[in-house]
Please model this.
Amino acid sequence: MEENFNPVARTRANYYTPGSPVQFVCVELLKGELSGENAVCLTFKNISKVTLTALEIHFKCKGVDGIILCEDAFEYREIEVKPGESFGMDDAVFVTQKAITSVDVVLKNVYSGKKVVHLDAIKRVRLPAPRRLSPELQKALEAGAACYVAEQPYDNAAPALLVSNVRRALSVLAAEYYGHPAEQLTLIGLTGTKGKTTTTYFIKNILDTAFGHRTAVLSTVEMYTGGESTEAHLTTPESLELQQCFADTLAHGIRHLTMEVSSQAYKQQRVYGVPFTVGLFLNLSEDHIGPLEHESFEDYFQCKLQLMKNCKLAVICRGTDRFGEIYAAAKAHAERILVCGNDPSCDLWVENIRKETPGFTFTVCDKNSRRDFRITMEGRFNIENALAAITITRALGLPDDAIAAGIADVSVPGRMNVLQKDGRTVIVDYAHNFLSFTALFRSLKQDYPGAPIKVLCGCPGHKNLKRRVDIGHLCGEYADFVYLTAEDPGFEDPAEICREMAGYIGESHHRFIILPDRAAAVERSIAELAPGEILILAGKGEEDYQKVQGRYDFYESDLAIARRCLGL
Model:
């Protein structure tokens, strides 16, 4: 009676032989239904460009203790294996009653007609260990996923789409899945070390005014694509969510979307292949350098520079560091370039700045015209942000009257929000790096001459450790008193972060106090604020959470606490 052999186990090859026209693929262990004997079948693949006619191998079968149970030569003769075909899986190489735990296969000679390739002298190379399926991938396959995208194949999984960069591939696939919606939008992207959020809302408000309806926005503050406005947790969403936002915008009949583009968005390929109608480069300063962000300032800069290489119209603020390199990148890729700034060498420039209460009036000039504009936001640095917005919306063909109306009453929660009561001034701002703190301090010194300045601030845990040095030094230079407190400490001790920052403030310890509890620190700083003094609540703005130990813990927000304490 003929015996049937059933499969018991299957494993991939552990080695390959460089230069071989044959690849050893896997070994399968079979067990006889009647005798209980074990049979081994080997699978090979023709990876050459010619038909193979014979293969000679040497094999060893080992038991559980590593002892060789048998070893012998085996020949595959009179075969005709075309390129890409597999063979051997139907041939039992050896049968034994002892349990086999491993099979070692050495390729000796491969034949193609009369031609032979001798492989016995070639040293084999160990293959990388097989990757285990992640629970997520296993669950997806069980749910019916047809294939998976990866940079390396997994054993015993579904068909794979192998790519060199899986995040880049996800961006491409997401765009394809949603039908490339960005190509149907007027898509405005903004990058820079500071001012992205405020400039985004200058642009959005102008667009809203010009078109008579809300336009779409993706910012640090919110995500709005025509439905309900939702809170943003990333400055720029991940690629799949981003493409969905583009599609939702179109579905709601909106054709303009303004978005912040972070350096991490390009580093992590979230916006790979996204075609921006307009790209704006605001400014540049060292930031986001650390183990969880960019390994160097150059990496940070090169990521931001990508926006100039992926937009039709490039708008550049003349005062930014490394202007020449930014302009060169735009010139090589963009169809058109506009430069805005403070001198007549720019396409648009600002003159005659006048302080108002609140805000500023200023004159925007080009080669052919002059026009006054007004903003109600405080901070002289916001004039630069407003000029960038004016430059972009003019380039899109919007009339000056709509631009002036749209830009006049912009207010962004947590960005230069000025609260005043009984002669006391509290400014809530998101300033959190060297450039934003420098601009804020200088603006206040100019607009509130002689007024004592107090500041409440901290630094995040495990992010851009140089911020602690920079902000400490700036507080020592400009502030009359500093309240050091928690600001998204993560897995670090907020008190230790504060002590590190205090070491850079300098002079007397009487110029600062460490209060790790941020809510208590804000309340105390306002209670101690005298008439004529200015208090800056920096770093958190309107954010109603603190990042602590991997969690998002509820926090009332600087703005809410300030309003409560001032009775506003």
